[in-house]
């Protein structure tokens, strides 16, 4: 089970998303959609994705995508079934992370390689938070997303390992 101390060293988006989810669930195992008050997470909304969970068969559909997430995406996934998207099929890391949250009913933090258009990002950190329906099964997932850039050391290391003649030939 993820606890606040596990998030030391992570961004404010991840820590504040965790605190928000815990406040909304209170003493319950999971918060319900009715527990979610967007006015209490306004600073987090640009980094939030709300995903609906389909059961039998399992699938996911993004329904709300924050501005920061949308701006960094290769293309909009809003309203699309993940099973229809080549980069999000059941073999992808993001699908496996969401599937784990659906079955475990536990909040989780995952580092997932970034595959969008902005090459300065190495990975995303996704705080994946389950939301329960009236039958207490996971029906939605709130995901707080932070983008992790290549550090200066990563760039220097990449340059040191690069095939400079091949790079120069492309220029």
Q: What is the compact description of this entry?
A:
Helix content is about 30%, strand content about 25%. By secondary structure, the chain is α+β, with helices and mostly antiparallel strands. The protein has a single domain (about 5-170), classed as 2-Layer Sandwich (Beta-Lactamase).
Report on this structure.
- The protein has 171 residues and is α+β, with helices and mostly antiparallel strands.
- It has a single domain, classed as Beta-Lactamase.
- The chain contains five helices and five strands, in the order αββααβββαα.
- The chain has helices at 12-25, 67-72, 93-104, 152-161, 164-170, and strands spanning 48-54, 59-65, 108-113, 121-132, 138-149.
- A five-stranded antiparallel sheet has the order 2-1-5-4-3.
- A hairpin with a 5-residue loop joins strand 4 (121-132) and strand 5 (138-149).
- The chain is globular, with a radius of gyration of 18 Å.
């Amino acid at each position: 089970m993820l606890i606040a101390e596990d998030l030391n060293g992570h961004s404010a988006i991840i820590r504040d998303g965790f605190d928000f989810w815990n406040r909304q669930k209170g003493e319950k195992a999971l918060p319900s959609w009715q527990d979610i008050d967007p006015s209490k997470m306004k600073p987090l909304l640009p980094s939030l994705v709300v995903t609906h969970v389909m059961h039998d068969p399992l699938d996911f559909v993004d329904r709300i995508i924050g501005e920061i997430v949308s701006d960094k995406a290769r293309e909009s996934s809003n309203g699309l079934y993940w099973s229809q998207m080549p980069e999000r099929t059941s073999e992808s890391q993001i699908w496996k992370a969401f599937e784990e949250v659906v079955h475990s009913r536990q909040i989780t933090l995952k580092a997932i390689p970034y595959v969008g258009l902005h090459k300065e990002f190495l990975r995303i950190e996704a705080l994946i938070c389950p939301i329960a329906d009236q039958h207490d099964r996971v029906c939605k997932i709130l995901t707080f997303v932070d983008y992790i850039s290549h550090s200066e050391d990563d760039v220097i290391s990449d340059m040191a390992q690069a095939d400079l003649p091949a790079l120069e030939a492309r220029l």
